[in-house]
Amino acid sequence: MRLGPILAPLVLRPARRDLLRFALTVSGIAVGVATMCAIRLANASVLSSFARTVDFVAGKAGLTVLHDGPGIPEEVLERLAWLRAEGVTLAPAVTETAATGAYSGDVVEVLGIDPLGDGAVREYRDVHAAPHGAAGIASAKSPATRPDAVVAFGTAGRFFGHDAVMVTETFARAHRLREGDSLPLVAGGVERRMRIVAVLAAVGPARAAGGNVVFTDLATAQELFGKVGRLDRIDLVFPADLSSPEARTRVEEEVRASLPPGVTVGRPERRAETVDRMVRAFRVNLTLLGLIALLVGVYFVYNTLSISVLRRRPDIGVVRALGGSAGSVFLAFLLEGGALGLAGSLLGAALGVALARGALLAVGGTATEYYLPSAHPELTLDVWVLASSVALGTLASIASALAPALEAARVPPAAAMRHGSVEALRRRQVAPLAAGGALLLAGAAAASRLGPVGGLPVYGFLAVFLVVAGASLLAPAAVLLAARLAGRRLGASARIARANLTGSLSRTAVAVAALGMGLSMMVSVAVMVGSFRSTVQRWVNDTLKSDLFVSPAAGKSGPSFGRLPEEAIRLIASVPGVTDLDPFLAFGATRDGVPFTVASGRFAYIAERDLPMVDGRDARAVVRGALERGEALVSEPFAEKHGVKTGDVVEIPTARGPKRLKVAGVYIDYSNDRGTVTVDRALFRRLYDLDGAVSIAVALAPGVSAEEGRRRILEAARGRFVLRVRTNASLRRDVLKIFDRTFAITYALEGVAIAVAVLGVFNTLVALVLERRREIGLLRVLGASAARVKSAVRLEAAAIGALGSAVGLLSGAAMSLILVHVINRQSFGWTIRMDWPFRTLAGALAAVLATTLLASHHPARMAAATDAAAVLKEE
Amino acid sequence: MIRILPGVGARVVVEDVTRTYDGSVTALAGVSFELAAGTFTALVGPSGCGKSTLLNLLGALDTASSGRVVVDGRDLARLGESDRDEYRLRRAGTVFQFFNLLPTMTAVENVALPLLLAGVPSGAADERAAAALISVGLAGKERAYPYQLSGGQMQRVAVARAVINGPALLLADEPTGNLDSKAGAQVLELIASLVRERGLTAVMATHSEKAAAYATRELHLLDGRLAP
Questions:
Q1: ipTM over 0.90
Q2: Does B178 reside within a domain?
Q3: Which domain holds residue B65?
Q4: pLDDT above 90 covers what percent of chain B?
């Protein structure tokens, strides 16, 4: 099989003639790959930012003791004291989030450490230190340093002050700070002025969170964050003689056995895995959207190659007659598809890097809003993501080139089959293709009834792809049906357009399918987002009944963090005009490795206001019953993810062991997708030694306006607490603003899919005009004016646009049902009520049709400019 | 049979026409002749002698570099774009060697197309086209696509299409070049009968003396010039 000699006549020379079309094809693939690449880079950056933070903070720790509740009691250190005899170093720490100013400060991670021992775990270096790290506190890398020694020149003494902090070089540079400067730190609604006693070089934990880390003494951190008597982590550093996996496993088991309930031990990277699980559903859904954009681009390759094969049939026939084998013809066209795919993918990867920053703003913003308030995602160019995106784009292009390549291989030697007979063959395939399409749609319906796999809606994704594939196979039948429905009473231009549409079915049907695919993505996402938004809006109206919402000031951060002390609650309760309040308290826990939230609220307060229940029961009765019987309420995402319903028993971790509670009801909650178990505040305080509130809902007396109530609370708190006080109206606005920001990237993806699809229509029309030059010349000979020829091309484009829109609308509607009722539900656990945004869809359809007509402008002009005499001379 | 009005053939005057391409290739050099209405003229000559070029000039598909082509008193070089379209639609019909039927349309749709272009309503256009196909011996082939027809059948569809709008001038470029002798004879007889019964003027380019015998007059071309 000799490939070389036939490449020039079959692939290279024709490609040179059709540069515009090939450029368009490469562009289409590039846009699809760029979209997918940008999203994957953004996802990888968010995760690696957090993973790096975990690594930097974990340092040399072989194991880390973590809490699965409100914190590790300090007495655990005593329980683990036996480890010191084995040479293991224990490094306790508090990790929290704070702001460097009440209302405009940056968000920082605060690491409260034991300065005497932390050097054994983590490396610190003062920026003024000598190169081999003998300054500052003990450096883990300095072999002569014992972990419990302090090697310093004055820093340690100053570090033990209750207002002492160390900042990183990065942070200091960004905020123009130096050693000795003061730094405001806001935590739990209290602002304190801290003193910078050292600036740390960018090594070890100073590199965490993009350098936005502040270090302080353990006791200072416990006091700052209301965690006296509690820790967030205890890192264990093993000596050299305990480095074998068997030894570590033994130690891990013994440690686990000595830990109280609610405290766990594991490898440090487990934390990254937990966060990965938290954001996984969000990441996977975004990646799916990016994949569809790629799929639309890959249609280009199929379209371009199919047209190429048809145009080069006589050349293929000649090559075969001269002795070229079918195998070499197959390979030649496969190579062409691969080359197009590779060129497009390389360009796409480069474009993806350029787009990644924008994608990270969107993805990172959402990750920060919902999952990781202290995250500072930085763009990292993951080589694996780039390489795999290029590989995926290329492989997908080769796969889509298979069918045209096979068709080319089947062209008989000296093929003289007339154009019409090839298309007649296509028309005979319409019925079996339509049957296949219907089968795929039925498969989609069946797949959408299956449950999640590993918490992911795998069958839901399959159902979406089956809808896309099924609709594509039905496109040729849709074209023929539309032609038949158009009837016979058509004018010249319409008749020419219809004949072209049905007469070049192999090309026009692909263009219809591609446009349909892009539009279906747009429709499904628009319906899903629109339904979600209106559902959230309704929920906000139903649940946000309080007049004011108070939380600790959190600088520039969107979400609040930290806990207001009891004193703040008492202060607010005493403000004139405040009639009642509900302090909300919560912490993160895990259940079988899946994160969820344990929360508390005043059930008596909640019972006076509505709380929408999933089963529609009267919330007042449910909440009062839960209060009386000491039962819990669970949110819908929790119930979905853990298969829990009313009447079941759930366990929540406490210091005295798991507490079993009966579920009184399941309530609707869109504030987070982790899932929440909520108990009455009094019960919560009995189970956990925790007070204060992360937020407080406030009811005002009649006659006291929200603005007035806000002013009174801020006035009362002045000089004591820094609070964020939002009125009911402003909180509702903020909720929807966050929602819109979260979905901004999906709107961008919709636009990309449509743009690529319309590009496909343009590509097809140009190809068809080039192919039909003889027929266009003939029309001019018959007396058709240039305007008539243009009109026929435009009508054909309009028909492709209309058919693509119809296919897109119907398949998009099916996909939106899957997105809402299957994918969203299985990913996040939320019930969403369908809301069809007819006006938005109508506007989008009009835009697509207009753009399609615009895409016909150049091909129409090309057709009108055809030199009739010249083309008719060609044989 | 297609209804024919007698005496509607075109009168053609070609005056000292030259056609050069790129300033160096001379397809026609100083060609002059006149054609009376209702005549059947064969342009005879070997390949490359300028026959097709001359037909293109008569069909307003091309313009002479110098000289005049006048049909029924109208200098074709002076026609604007839309007038040329109109001329090709209503005044001149063309038949090609390779048939040039639109492959995506059936036989009746191909024949009806000039009527639709002329503004005839689609129902009436289809009826007249069907009748025209019957008149050229293709009854029952109305819904056939070109790939389903033989060469002779395709050429008869092309002839029906060329005359459906009642042109005064019929141009045929090697109409039998791709046909066997029997099919070719049928097409030539069809053209001849149209000239006789309708009175239209026909000009046929051919290299075949046998085909030229169907015409009433022969003009011989060699290297772009008319032989004396």
A1: no
A2: yes
A3: 12-226
A4: 68
